[in-house]
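quick q for whoever's on today - can somebody do inverse folding on this one?? i tried earlier but teh output was garbage lol. tokens:
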């Protein structure tokens, strides 16, 4: 007759090891990320957007004569 108790404990121990593998790997990857050098930030100049004229602001318009 199979020893069901031993089979259960064998499977349970293997399940526990499997459940602990992923968090351990995640922590290791997080440590690698935190220890890695940070890339420098480089800002590029703005790209011109075609030949559209800038919009006039109300303050830029000429005031009517006599105001």
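ok took a stab at it. sequence:
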């Amino acid at each position: 007759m199979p020893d069901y108790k031993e089979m259960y404990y064998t499977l349970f121990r293997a399940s526990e090891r499997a459940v602990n593998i992923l968090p351990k790997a995640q922590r290791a990857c997080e440590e690698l990320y935190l220890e890695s050098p940070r890339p420098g930030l480089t800002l590029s100049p703005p790209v011109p957007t075609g030949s559209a004229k800038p919009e006039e602001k109300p303050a830029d318009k000429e005031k009517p004569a006599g105001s």
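fwiw The mean pLDDT is 85. also The two ends are 108 Å apart (CA to CA). so keep that in mind when u check it
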